[in-house]
Amino acid sequence: LNRIDEVVVFERLGENTLCEIAKKEVSKLLKRAEKAGLELTFSDEIYHKIAQRVLNSKRESNAREVRKIITKEIEPQLCSLILKGESKGYISFDDEAIVASTYDSKCEIV
Fold this sequence. Notes:
- By secondary structure, the protein is α+β, with helices and mostly antiparallel strands.
- Helices cover 50% and strands 20% of the residues.
- It has three helices and four strands.
- A four-stranded mixed beta sheet has the order 1-4-3-2.
- A hairpin with a 2-residue loop joins β3 (96-103) and β4.
């Protein structure tokens, strides 16, 4: 009755694929921020850093890990920066500081 017809083997996701997933997840963050009246800009470097973090983790390389990194590490720092009303600040990611500038309801992360 409940038998397996075939086995599908999934390969580990590569850096380019993980970068594309990170771009899609960050674009969701950008849309949410836009609805709140904020304009955010991220450099392409952040997508590669997220992909590298997922690849270097001991867990499986998957889209859930990308979302988890954005939700747990980038969003809280960004929210803190915005709530403090600071015109310029830093978001720490992988022991590197990412510059974040806010001006006239705009935040640029480079």
